[in-house]
Amino acid sequence: MTALDTMTTSAGPPEGQGSLSPGQLAVRRFRRHKVAVAGLVVLVLFGLAAIVLPFFLDDPNAVDPTAIRQGPGDGHLLGTDSAGRDVLARLVAGGRVSLLVGLSVAALTTTIGLVLGAVAGYYRGWVDAVLSRVTDVVLSFPTLIIVIVVVAFVGPSVPALILGIGLFHWPVAFRIVRGLTLSLREQDSIQAVSGLGAGPARVLRKHVVPAVVAPLTVVATLEVAQAILLEAALSFIGLGVPPPTASWGNMLNEAQSLTILESMPWLWLPPGIAIALTVLAVNFVGDGLRDAADPRAAR
Amino acid sequence: MSGNDPLLAVDGLVKHFPVRGGVLQRQVATVRAVDGVSFEIGTGETLALVGESGCGKSTVGKTIMRFHPPTAGTVRFDGRDLATMKARELRAVRRDIQFVFQDPFASLPARMPVGDILAEPLEIHGVGDRRSRRARVVELLELVGLGADSVNRYPHEFSGGQRQRVGIARALALEPRLLILDEPVSALDVSIQAQVINLLARLQRQLGVAYLFIAHDLAVVQHLAHRVAVMYLGHIVEYGDAGTVFTRPAHPYTQALLSAVPVPDPRLRDLDRRILLSGDLPSPADPPAGCPFHTRCWKAEDRCREERPVLEIRTPGGAGTACHFAAEAELTSGPAGRTAS
Amino acid sequence: MSEPLLSIENLVTEFRVEGGTVPAVNGAGYQVMPGETVGVVGESGSGKSVTVASVLGLLPSSGRVVSGTARFAGRDLLAMRERELEQVRGRDIGLVFQDPMTALNPVMTIGEQIAESLRRHASISRRAAATKVAELLAEVGIPSPKERARQYPHQFSGGMRQRAMIAMAMANRPRLIIADEPTTALDVTIQAQILDLLRRVQREHDAALVMITHDLGVIAEMTERVVVMYAGRVVETADVDSIFHHPRHPYTRGLLRSLPRLGERRDELPAIGGQPPDPRRLPDGCAFRVRCDLSGGRAECGFQPALSEVAAGHVSACHFHGELAEEGVA
Known about the structure:
The structure holds 3 protein chains of 3 kinds. By secondary structure, chain A is an all-alpha fold.
């Protein structure tokens, strides 16, 4: 029934909830999102593991010729790989690389998207037209192929991977920021600040950027997840993180043969689960952030 | 009209908005939101711009602020034309002209505590140091009747009326000489409207600031305005001092507008004083030829359909009516005897 | 006297919010007689809209009727299932909302929507419904109704949309029309047209009308009896003349005094102090006492005043209504 909507808006519960800042209220909304909190816990644990565990584990590149493709057990908690390297140590080291790539790409893409999007949305006109066309062009490149080409020229390395993905993945953030800025600049709260005599720099810095940061963090989580998956895919086909450096992708790469898949699950199950868990956790956190950023999401 | 040179002189102000359509976003029509508007405001006085939605009154205010650039006309403030001023110069003039929005919920930044909101104009114009700005913020809060403890609270913790007080305080921070008030009380509860109207009247007495008061509620306007300009479809149709316009309106539209206001007294409801206009406001994208009001006017004749009446100044006080058949209708003061022919 | 058509008693409604519940209606009630026009006036947070939303089953999912009774023509509205309520709404009770743009379906023509409402409640042919739609649109003053019936809501102006809403509300000859701020979004010259129309259709259909509004001018022009609400309660009820000329509650009196009126200019409007009630932090006892100019901090005001009859058909919820007996509004 359509009439219900009107009643809902006019008869809705009152807003506002005591004397907390909007930021604190957002934290409260996030904490109410149980799955997101669980995702955050998983990510923090992974992050801590990636930082702390290497001090207690074997060198991930140390070869133990006496223990090749050994099953999980004494000495090697998750067994060893075809070169006799400790799988747990490589898993942790790979996590470092994956999280590094994911976070760096997210930081890079959202920064580029934020700056260009805010400028395009605020100035409109030809500035917007040029930036939007550039975005369309960038969007029309298939990222995977671009990164393969880049890597083919400069050789596989973690920085090449980050730049390759980052420089072609910012249009998502750009479009979101541009759209938000376009609508923001028409809003009373932004017009009011221009009316006070603030120049474009101040309006953008103090009012537009803080307003788009919350929705942008949601985009950032998606970028983290995508970058981790892309890194895994590229490493899997041998164009990502160069061996012997461990990454979840090249651990899977080394476990391609049928015999390994059938009889040595400790070689591919740990990195596979790690990738799935991380991506899932990042996406859950993204969900929670989206609700936290939206005060209307009643829970 | 007070004194020699007016504080603000708007002359022939025009604002057209292009309407774009189709795949190529070509201009398909023009909305003539403001179509040649002139008026003056003297120091410390209140001019009310009244009319119904779509008449262009808010656009006039926002065009003076240069929220959008005017299509034609001049806006002289203190003798300098704001319409052609460069952005940098304009920013400096903001100290003297400030704007208060209708919606106290949407016009304050939600992420800032009230102290920062009020300090922002001072920061922008580099007024004082941190400490003196703090002191000024407290002074402003007290000026608009809010406690100094509001400094650390956020807009969402205030009621609508209190937020509008914050909006007014922010507009007064730089001690402007002109305040443009765009429907400042129409989003507020009835019991709060009176508080804010009283506040605005007191601030004008205390600070000598001039108001351009944009509103549709005639009873509210009457309480604050010295002079009134009635707008219809982008034109001023009647202009004069508040007493004359409200008691002896000469334009048929003003007469109908005044008669349509519901009177809060059931004993007067059966008096046959209402002029019911037929039809809706024509679209400003396709305004009628001749007099803009002729499609709804009971006095309209052939001449009105062809020739647009100009705003004629009838008295030395500057009163005028844009109607070929203008005739004052006595609306005797006091609700008891309000009848219109 | 005959039976009331609509009777609401001791209604309590609350909303779930973060960290608890907030009361929106705190024991409100009023009655509407057949054919009568009742005005319900109050500010935001007074519960005037939530009250009718509660009894018509139109609360948002976070709202809940805690207790109370609501009877329409002898039937218990609060005990009805959703299907039965749907039958009542639209057939026995016609609804007119503030914003027809959100109440109307944007992707159906005006004609289709009115026809749907006709056919849902009565078995008539498509053709008969189309004829009836044109009649209804003509009745509410929409020019060239046959053509307009084929248009979509966005092709109508605000005033025309509200006319279409009224046509829809009247489609099944309801015995009661509930209009929630029907003219608040409209300009005064259009408001005058719509009020005129509401009066006319009500008279012609001999329906009762509940007019919910914050505008005392509209109340004075339209209604016979007035219910004044504050903080989820009814604080005063009387015939319209008594409310405007002999109010017996300080809130009603305060509202009337603070009103700017055309034709009289005062230096200072006698405003009611303070802020509208925050339903989450209502004061103990009389909710109005913190803004009341009559209370003077008297101990009685710490207790909730009951509604008491101060004159025939005139009730007030104020401990000191006697002190207002001799005063006028001015």
